[in-house]
Amino acid sequence: MKFRTEVDINASERKIGTDDCIFSIGSCFATEMHDKFSEGQIQSLNNPFGTIFNPYSINNAIQQIYDAKEYQESDLILANESYISLDHHSSFDSRFAKQSLEQINKNIEEANQFLQNTSFVIITFGTSYIYEFLPKKKLVANCHKIPQKFFEKRFLSNQELTESINQTIDTLKDICKKDVKILFTVSPVRHTKDGIVENQLSKSKLITAIHESISGKETCHYLPIYELMMDDLREYRFYKEDMIHPNSQAVQYIWEKFGNAYFTDETKLFINENNKILTALNHKTADEKNPKYQEFLEKINQKILYQQKKVKHKIFG
């Protein structure tokens, strides 16, 4: 007798190896996945433009990375006593234009180099809504707490969604490794501020556009992350206190489902051993000079050296 609807991720023929590079971009769930890769010491780069949610802005970010664009002060606006890029998350905002530009351009350069060695790209869309900044007639990635009167909110049309996704695929196939796999997901985080009905409509538009865009493309796949949360883990005990974001238990469950479908056996073992090392490193003591604690640290260092021999990139750096 079954008491729940279990959702599976189809096993991938092409598996993630210990030396593969993983690029992720999109909503905050993309960051959750990136954190798991980082903890397991797999090479991963996430959201060089900061957290962004809609396919149009994600496509724009990837195009700017591909072009290795160098942002200038003329690309910024001054609002709320900060220099702001409407293409970026508010974490790039600064009182000094030079400071904002240094971080923006550094991230673009790093992402451009990383993408050239990337084998897997994970794109997590959060919403079909977009805002237009009326003074510049520009579609933006983030409103940066600028007063609402300066924006117009609307849904991206199906054509805008599919064009953005298709352009993203073409750009990534040109800059990444030839055998790159592009994995599309829809964030399970509900945008309740848009309204419950509106959020469902927004997510459904994303799912439809993804499936239309990737149909017949062997390099592209849809990961049912949204369905895992909505249908498999459909109880509120799998949410944080805000009843919106998946909690750590839910993220771990989704991560394990993903790993079973996409990791080689070697990668699974590598990540599990590194997670054990990370747990040990987080262990604190009141007496760091205690001989037993020093012996404990030496054993951890030996394990790190053993793990390091398995990969070319530096781990626990």
From TrEMBL:
This is GSCFA domain-containing protein. Residues 22-258 form the GSCFA domain. One of its GO terms (molecular function) is hydrolase activity, acting on ester bonds. It comes from the Bacteria. Signal peptide: none annotated.
